[in-house]
Amino acid sequence: MADPFEVRMRFTSQLQHLNASVNSSQKAAHYALKYRDMDEDLHSCILEQLERNSMNTRANIMYFIEHLCDMAQRENHLDFVRMMQRDILRVVDAVAPSDGSGAANVKVVRRVLAGLQQKSLLLPDTVLEIEAGLAERDNVTKDTHSALSPISPNSQHPPPDIMTTHPAKRLDKRQIEQRIEEDRERHKRLRESIWAVGEDGDGEFERLWEEASEIGEDDWGVAEEDAVERRVAGEVE
How close are the terminal C-alpha atoms of the chain, in Å? Predict the structure, then answer.
């Protein structure tokens, strides 16, 4: 039997080193399911890392959660899913805090929640409830941007102290560059998935066939004209 402390330390390291690649999330998810008998301890490890790491790492862990729940459902180990359903509000609060420090992660939370709902891992009512809170956090972000805008010299109202109103932690240059690169990688994968064709190649053909309109007399006329033009062009050559 594996040493629980060692399992926890290795899992923690995997969470801390997650990136935009699917492989890193799948590797961590496989590791968690390999030691599913320690699921409660590993779940608490996820929560701890969400509350201790940078906003970029929290975003990566949020994407990992979707992979873990999806994989756990396919392997019929639903304890991970149940615990995540129970603590989803705590997860969201850690990834996109209400103080505005995780404003860049609001879209991440929405994407993952939509994915979990689509896979029937979260109830629609739960997602709607969380979305209401995220809308308020969007307003906090907009208020912050508004407060940072230039103030007229004639204004009688001094600008608010942003660090007092919204004590958001600023990202350093390295974290910003890392986030831009990871977002670019995710958008690239998203575009690839949109154009991906499933194993059943006939499915796309059938869809296009159903969407195509029936051939009319005008279509036959255009086809005959094209055939004549091709024939004449061939004789000229």
Answer: 79
In this predicted model, what pLDDT tens digit does every residue of 109-156 receive, in sequence order? 999 999 999 999 999 999 999 999 898 776 655 544 444 344 444 545
Angle between the N-to-C axes of helices 39-52 and 79-86, in degrees from 0 to 180, rounded to the nearest 10: 40
The pair phi, psi for residue 232, each rounded to 5°, is -65, -40
The rounded distance, in Å, linking the Cα atoms of 97 and 112 is 16
Give the number of other Cβ atoms within 10 Å of residue 112's Cβ: 24
DSSP codes joined into one string, 28-44 = HHHHHHHTGGGHHHHHH
pTM metric for this prediction: 0.67
Q: Are 92 and 50 in contact (CB under 8 A)?
A: no
CB 21 within 8 A of CB 40: no
Question: 143, 134, 81: which is closest to 110 by C-alpha?
Answer: 134
Token pair for residue 217? 């007399």
What is the chain's alpha carbon radius of gyration, rounded to the nearest angstrom? Answer: 26
